[in-house]
Amino acid sequence: MTESKIISKNPFWFWKVTKIDFNSITSISILHPPKTAISLEIKMENATKLIPVSSLRDHTWKELKKHLIKENIVLYDKVGF
What we know:
This protein has 81 residues and is of the alpha+beta class. It has one domain (25-81). It contains one helix and six strands; from the N terminus they run βββββαβ. It has one helix spanning 58-70; strands at 5-9, 17-21, 25-31, 39-44, 48-52, 74-77. A hairpin with a 7-residue loop joins strand 1 (5-9) and strand 2 (17-21). The longest helix is centred in the C-terminal third of the chain and has 13 residues, at 58-70. The protein starts with a strand and ends with a strand. The model has no long low-confidence stretch (mean pLDDT 81).
């Protein structure tokens, strides 16, 4: 995470990197679908992305949530971090 983007590396295809500007994000949901890792569902103006983020530690989750609130992004925490 930078000041203007969320950056995610794919855990399976390590060469794939997803970069999303905070300006294009309308809302983010923290999900735990059955039989899968904890994920971020990022809704943008024209698309929705599901990004696995189970490797984040507790302090990183708290930092991410604070940063999203500061950026005025709607956050739905369905896991309880």
